Amino acid sequence: MMAEDKTSFPRQKALIVAGPTCSGKSALAMRLAEEINGVVINADAMQCYKDLRILTARPSEEDEKRVPHFLYGVLDGAERGSVGWWLPQAMKMLSYCAQENLVPIFCGGTGMYINALIHGIADIPPVSDQAREAAEILWEKEGGEKCLENLKEQDPQTAAKLKPQDQQRICRALSVLMGTEKPLSYWQSRPQKAGGNCDFHFFHFAPEREFLRSRLERRFEKMLAAGAWEEVERFLERGLSSSLPLMRAHGVPELKRYQEGEISLEEAASLAISAMRSYAKRQDTWFRHHALGREEDGIVFKNPISFDPQEDEIDLEKASSLALGFLKERGF
After folding, report:
1. Using one digit for the tens of pLDDT, what is the confidence trace for 142-181?
2. Is the pLDDT of residue 9 over 70?
3. Which fold has domain 129-190?
4. Bridge partners of 14?
5. Given a cut of 90, is residue 260 above it in pLDDT?
6. Do the domains spanning 13-123+193-329 and 129-190 agree at the CATH topology level?
7. Which residues form the signal peptide (predicted)?
8. Which residues are 200's β-sheet partners?
9. Distance CA 299, CA 58 (A)
10. 62 pLDDT exceeds 90?
11. Coil, helix or strand for 77?
């Protein structure tokens, strides 16, 4: 009888470029892809949608011609993307890259997507549209405080992690409860769907928050100049439910109020920028509390990256040189 072959094969290498919005992730990911035969794979929830390329800062057509991009603009705005949808797509991309001898570079700021890629996710059954709509109607009727109280009675473990303003997460927990007749905490305690069995290396953007404030303001002004308002106007003409993820993309609710005559365009822009700053703060908090790997497995950039660096910004060429030197030492 032949002895079992216990030869170990090297695990697939993969990169993660993550951090808050407007910190320069995409620029670095593209440069690395050009240098190491890589492809850029989206790990940003809003950039999965076909609609609102400008407002969601999706890579341009020119960028997509420079290097291969995947999982960008693949969902319609009427669909509901989720980490449960995204992870199987990401796993398919890992298989594709392994077959084609390409380096997968996951780029984005949606912490739950990246955490699922590294660690896997709970295997929760699909929730019906009826259960989801019932949870949203309950929220609109009762509000956050009452909904959280209701959740606390039936799923105290999940409720303890939430605040009354966490609309999306509370409605998700309630819809799981209604749709499966079991609390979210039950499903999360069961065996998980596996993430990527990879040798992950990372580049984590963790700039001081004040560094991003002016960048976010300049970015939104550029978005408006590039046609973001007209893009949102066309999207709103579809008359989609306000509960859909893309209808809550930063800038959409504010520009909708402008469309309806409630506020001026200047006020809408100010509110949108404020919402983006709050979101960047939440992203930064997430990544500071959810490590992307061991300290020796990556680089943390404390400053945003820019093609044309201003004060407190890092030149793209310098950042690329640091990153490529790091990867060369690790066999990329």
Report:
1. 899 999 999 999 999 999 999 998 888 899 899 999 999 9
2. no
3. Histone, subunit A (1.10.20)
4. 200
5. yes
6. no
7. none
8. 14
9. 24
10. yes
11. coil
Work out whether strand 121-122 and strand 192-193 pair parallel, antiparallel, or are unpaired: antiparallel
Residue-averaged pLDDT of the chain: 90
Max CA distance (Å), the chain: 81
DSSP letters, 242-293, are TTSGGGGSTTHHHHHHHHTTSS-HHHHHHHHHHHHHHHHHHHHHHHHHS-SS
In 10 A of CB 331, how many CB atoms? Answer: 8
Give first-to-last CA distance, the chain, whole Å.
Answer: 39
Residue ranges per structural domain of the chain: 13-123+193-329, 129-190
Q: What is the pLDDT confidence band of residue 206, given thresholds at 50, 70 and 90?
A: confident
> Token pair of 322, please?
């640091």
Domain covering 13-123+193-329, topology:
Rossmann fold (3.40.50)
Element (H, E) at 102: none
Tokens read off for 25: 């992730």
- Lookup: tokens for 284: 């930064």
Given this model, what pLDDT does residue 195 score? 82
Q: Which two tokens mark 119?
A: 């660690």
**What is the mean predicted confidence (pLDDT) over 231-251?**
93
- Rounded distance between C-alpha atoms, residue 52 and residue 229, angstroms: 10
308 pLDDT above the threshold of 70 = no
SS3 at position 105: strand
Q: Give residue-wise pLDDT tens across range 80-135.
A: 999 989 999 999 999 999 999 999 999 999 999 999 999 998 888 888 888 888 99
